[in-house]
Amino acid sequence: MQTGDWNPEGNEQDRELRNALAARGYWQAFKTVKGSIETILAEKNVNSGRVVKKDHQQWYRELFAPSVTAGILAAKDLAGYRNGSVFIRQSMHVPPNYEAVRRDLLPTFFELLENETEPGVRAVLGHFVFVYIHPYMDGNGRIARFLMNTMLASGGYPWTVIPIARRDEYMNALETASVSKDIKPFTMFVRSLII
After folding, report:
1. Which of 10, 67, 93, 103 has the fewest Cβ atoms within 10 Å of its own Cβ atom?
2. How far from 147 is each of 47, 119, 123, 160, 173, CA to CA, in Å?
């Protein structure tokens, strides 16, 4: 990989290695998220929004740590939020300017997350607004799903997985929320997974 010959799109061995690194990173991030949830559930008056604000960057670093170890990414690439424009494949939504992410959007997002009292609202809007802002170059959906599950757990709901068979429905509901400004399909989608 450090030779510059890394090609997961055209080389089967590189693709398998990429998938193994992604699975390892997901597992590491999941363990860290579990720690965040344990903190929320163990302490009576802890604010789950504040815990996510404090912990989400560690989740992100764990998600991509195996790629750093393998030499695919530099550790500095995981420090902070994106420094450029990002586009979402097969979406009409263009995430906000990267300068607004740090300055305005994330501080406001975390303030709203901390002040919302209803776990279901924190879960749905937390997930949606996080991917709408798209603060990282990659991994935003995974972090948003971790965030959603942390908020659900804070309200006593079970861990919720988006089935691969419903991925298109999930992506369409997010697209409707982002582009058409209609959160209802996404809300109903999440609701259908937890009842």
Report:
1. 10
2. 14, 11, 7, 11, 18
